[in-house]
Amino acid sequence: MSLLQxxxxxxxDKAASGEVSPSELVEASLAAIEAHNKALGAFISVDAExxxxxxxxxxxAQARGKEPGPLFGVPVGLKDNLCLIHQPMTxxxxxxxxxxxxxxxxxxxxLLDAGAIPIGRCNMDEFAFGSSTEHSCYGPTRNPWDLxxxxxxxxxxxxxxxxxxxxxxxxxxDTGGSIRQPAALCGVAGLKPTYGRVSRFGLTxxxxxxxxxxxxxxxxxxxxxxxxxxxxxxxxxxxxxxAAAFPPPEPLMDxxxxxxxxxxxxLGEGVHPSIRAQIEAAQKTLAQLGADLIPIQLPHTExxxxxxxxxxxxxxxxxxxxxxxxxxxxxxxxxxLEDLYLETRGKGFGxxxxxxxxxxxxxxxxxxxxxxxxxxxxxxxxxxxxxxxAFTKVDVIIGxxxxxxxxxxxxxxxxxxxxxxxxxxxxxxxxAGIPGLSVPCGLDEDGLPVGLQILGPALGDARILQxxxxxxxxxxxxxxxxxxxxx
Amino acid sequence: xxxxxxxxxxKLARLARLELDPGxxxxxxxxxxxxxxxxxxxxxxxxxxxxxxxxxxxxKDRFREDRPADPGDGMLRGQDLVEQNAPAKEDGYYLVPPVxxxxxx
Lengths: 487, 105
Hints:
The structure holds two protein chains of two kinds.
Chain A: H1 8-17, H2 22-40, E1 43-46, H3 48-63, E2 75-79, H4 106-113, E3 117-122, H5 156-163, E4 169-174, H6 180-186, E5 189-192, E6 212-217, H7 220-230, E7 259-263, H8 273-288, E8 292-296, H9 304-319, H10 337-348, H11 351-363, H12 370-390, E9 396-400, H13 416-420, H14 427-432, E10 436-443, E11 449-455, H15 461-474
Helix pairs in contact in A: 2-3, 7-15, 9-11, 9-12
Chain B: H1 9-15, H2 22-39, H3 79-85, E1 89-90, E2 93-94
Antiparallel strand pairs in B: 1-2
């Protein structure tokens, strides 16, 4: 069996016991990237030299008797919006050409402290603006299950890298579904933690009140290990919570007595029939494990997309003001300072970034801020209350992660709204701050993966991970692999 | 909710400090009003008396002493930042073209 069929925790155990070395794991990962990245575009850049050097350091420390960490020797992919000191970070944008990070993000430092080895930087929609990973200045990432289709986004490179067995673990960021949606479309597991669980220090800000860093893996257990390594109240992110630390939960033998909410709004007309079929089958599996299925309502769901896009574009337009060509990045020549801003930003940002900045600038402008931004924040309160009300009756909520299967590349180009609607079932969790994950729950009629979304109450990350693990243990979906890389 | 009156795309782009090419002006100029019209859907929701949530979680202000802290290892600071990333620099300072007028820099 190839080393890359192992989960992250299996790799770690083999490396810790000396059965394989971190160098061998890194070499296997580099070989897989070499074999598949040209077709997939999952990685923007690969740091082979740095990864091999770090593997040697870990081996030397182990030889000195240092206890191997919980991710010892595990090769990881990092979404290219996370800082690692002195390393390039592009955010998939021309405007950050030549940039090198001046510090390391807290989340990445957590993985490093646990013994993980960063292999390279994963492709993404420019500044995480998108649900398809088509909007990267480095070209699209392709879905390993069907190269003509999108992998989802914006963390599409991180999802494809795990699906194609290039790495067992990767990091992404989720502002409106950017971890869960590509996880679903690529047939892997992906977790968006509770807002405030993982420090955002060193994550390039998109929507500061919505963004969370989270992991992709093929097993729920690996998501737990990664979250443990990253979570915690952190001095450099004032929005991290007192109770942010995360001890991984014990596995559950069954789900007896677990109350699972089925929101009517999540299986409405907009959901593709073949996705609906897989979700209904997943409901049966959970019932067989002893869970009680309880119909619930989340009545404001239909307003989540306009509320989300108003909040997200407003925050993004403000956050992206820092990219002005003065302190870092690619500067355009200009005769005066204002022209320098106009030219640098005009040539540096792609069209989707411009679309969102313009929307945000308008929604925050005098005379419109109450009608748009503040109105959206009020609707956000109602969406949050929907969940609070639901979680007085149920322990977790399940539904599809995405309303439809992955588009063909280029299909949504002319109609940005079509792509925005992809986030229908994922954006509510970001607006409410609650944790959510996606696990594979089967293939649709075209052989493309379908994701089961599991949502929990704030700080209920352990609970949804337990349910995901129990579901995994009762099914074989996590073993399914795209043809090219099947065991 | 008031009906949106989007200013001309050139004006909005100027406010956002974005140079747009003719194709972008045309595409964004037609798409933005349509997207905004979709956002109008929120006017169906009665939000009378509902408080706004800039953040989903109840966050506490956290205070620290107003003193420079040692950022520790692994963080560039001061002129090292300029050295590593500035597109134009001189003697450890960022260089920019004149604020008003001026020649091509």
